[in-house]
Prior knowledge:
It is a single chain. The chain has 267 residues and is an all-alpha fold. The protein contains eight helices and no strands. The longest helix is centred in the middle third of the chain and has 35 residues. The model has no long low-confidence stretch (mean pLDDT 83).
Amino acid sequence: MLPLVLAIIATVLYLAGALAIAQPLLNRPALVSRSVGLALAGGGVAAHAAAELLRHGGGIDLHFFTALSVVVLLVAALTLAVNIARPVAGLGVIVFPLAASLVTLDILVQPSSQPLSLGWQIQLHVAVALLAYAVLSLAAVLAILLLGQERALRNHRLSGGLVRVLPPLTLTEALMFRLVGAGFALLTLTLLSGVLFVENLFAQHLVHKTVLSLVAWVVFGVLLFGRWRFGWRGRRAVRLVLTGMGVLLLGFFGSKFVLELVLQRAN
């Protein structure tokens, strides 16, 4: 019961934080500041984390909805952390409602299950992998927002929509590349730790995940090289970020969806 109560609290705080951040979109005077919105979302992150910890006893549970909930929890926490250094509270307009939806789905839809008993090596591998997914997911959200900013710039609509709550386009783009760089490093560590620590690759249905993760790693690597060597930016960079993230999500969550929800098999 307590995890459900915490999930409800997290949902309310996430949505309140997102609404506070989105006030400039409503063409009305702001009732509370953006910092208050971030503080509310911070409470949502704390309640979300507590709900997951209590529900799974502090262990690792990577069933489909739980994995989604944990990743979006990390994305929400990263959104708050990024805002300490950069004024990108506009990210919360997308991230916080998504977090509210997924924590609710996890608590209401995902059946209770015992967390996996794993050695510290596998726990480290999983933790780095989840952090990599979260960092690259946030980069993908920024890529989508960057695409919207560029479209608004071409159409001379710089005072409407999400543009009002986003930093200048160049800052958004620079932050996106920093996140891609950090995510690429974490994804590299994920692949290396997987090779070192994961056994019985075929028996654990991990071959397709590994192959697709390698494809995503190559895509992000090509993007970073192109940025460094040729100054790639704009739509080309956005396409590569979204392509890499799409492949990564297909490899992990796509396969989990098929195995757990369609074939009803443990993954």
